[in-house]
UniProtKB/TrEMBL annotation:
Domain of life: Bacteria
Lineage: Bacteria, Pseudomonadati, Pseudomonadota, Gammaproteobacteria, Thiotrichales
Name this protein carries in UniProt: P-type Cu(+) transporter
Main location (coarse class): membrane
GO biological process: copper ion homeostasis
Subcellular location: Cell membrane; Endomembrane system
GO cellular component terms listed in the entry, alphabetical order: endomembrane system; plasma membrane
Family from the record: Belongs to the cation transport ATPase (P-type) (TC 3.A.3) family. Type IB subfamily.
Single Gene Ontology MF annotation: ATP hydrolysis activity
Keywords attached to this entry: ATP-binding, Cell membrane, Copper, Copper transport, Ion transport, Membrane, Metal-binding, Nucleotide-binding, Translocase, Transmembrane, Transmembrane helix, Transport
Full-length numbering of the shown residues: 408 to 697 of 758
Signal sequence bounds: none
């Protein structure tokens, strides 16, 4: 491509709210055959809210929220923020020794009680029995909600379900990318069932779920090892290494600065439909100069 046509292409993209940092990225993006999409904040709005609170017998919903929100007050995770939001009006207690376990959940100490809140793997790792609420959790997950378990003093006392709405244009954006001949993959730290339920709603069959934050870049690398040319789209701090690893890293402009800095392209409005637009502009730019 000539420098002029590249400049024109980058300018054209900017008109659509697609910021291309390097001329390289404009040339690379029409070569990709695989697009990996982060779920939370990329396919979904990233603004989850609590939908269900299910205590075990002997506890009520407010007690569950009180413990959970007292703990999540110290969390920066969107799930934590949803729980704090849901507990508005409930007086919270001081938590000590707060600890966030990336990809699993949070823990802390409230007076003489040990609190643990997170996914099934987290509770299982501490040998806490979850079987009384397994069926409930399964149903919630099949509805596309994320169930988080709350244990007090190593005993399960309830589940909180959180739902993150799918962005209105995600399904259409994914269909367009598939029609362009691309393999579309969803990658998330969320549990397999919830991930699968969301994927089904938007027409994705290829799902990488329960991926720990530290493993996201490795998943991209292994696709590359298989010969794939990969673009990764993400918004979170967790996504930054994967965005940097991909042939083309694409950040959601409404996401974190860390993700934007790790990427070659930023989608200002955070719309997934812009990914197809970027590829079309790239193809047109490079065809013009043949
Ligand atoms: P994502 O890819 O959605 O950003 P994460 O790797 O951050 O996922 O988290 C994976 C899972 O760990 C979540 O779906 C949730 O079950 C659990 N988890 C992580 N952080 C928290 C938290 N602060 N509170 C409750 N659960 C959490
Ligand atoms: Mg995200």
């Amino acid at each position: 491509a000539t420098p002029t046509s590249i400049t024109v292409g980058i300018g054209k993209a900017a008109e659509y709210g697609i910021l291309i940092r390097a001329s390289d990225a404009l040339q690379q993006i029409q070569k990709i055959d695989t697009i990996v999409l982060d779920k939370t904040g990329t396919i979904t709005t990233g603004q989850p809210s609590v939908t269900d609170i299910i205590p075990i017998e002997g506890y009520d919903k407010n007690q569950i929220l009180h413990y959970a929100a007292s703990l999540e007050r110290y969390s920066e995770h969107p799930l934590g923020q949803a729980i704090v939001q849901a507990a508005q009006g409930i007086p919270l207690d001081e938590v000590h020794n707060f600890n966030a376990l990336a990809g699993y959940g949070v823990q802390g100490q409230l007076a003489d009680k040990t609190l643990l809140l997170g996914n099934a793997k987290l509770l299982q790792s501490q040998a806490i029995e979850t079987s009384s609420l397994t069926d409930t959790a399964t149903q919630l997950a099949q509805a596309g909600k994320t169930p988080v378990y709350l244990a007090v003093n190593q005993q399960l006392i309830g589940i909180i379900a959180i739902a993150d709405p799918i962005k209105p244009d995600s399904a259409q954006a994914i269909r367009t990318l598939q029609h362009m001949g691309l393999n579309v993959v969803m990658m998330t730290g969320d549990n397999q069932r919830t991930a699968q339920a969301i994927a089904t709603q938007i027409g994705i069959t290829d799902v990488l779920a329960e991926v720990l934050p530290a493993d996201k870049a490795n998943k991209i690398k292994s696709l590359q090892t298989q010969g794939r040319i990969v673009a990764m789209v993400g918004d979170g701090i967790n996504d930054a290494p994967a965005l940097a690893q991909a042939h083309v890293g694409i950040a959601i402009g409404t996401g974190t600065d860390v993700a934007i800095e790790a990427s070659d392209i930023t989608l200002i409005q955070g719309k997934l439909t812009s990914v197809a637009t970027a590829i079309q502009i790239s193809r047109a730019t490079l065809q013009n100069i043949k």
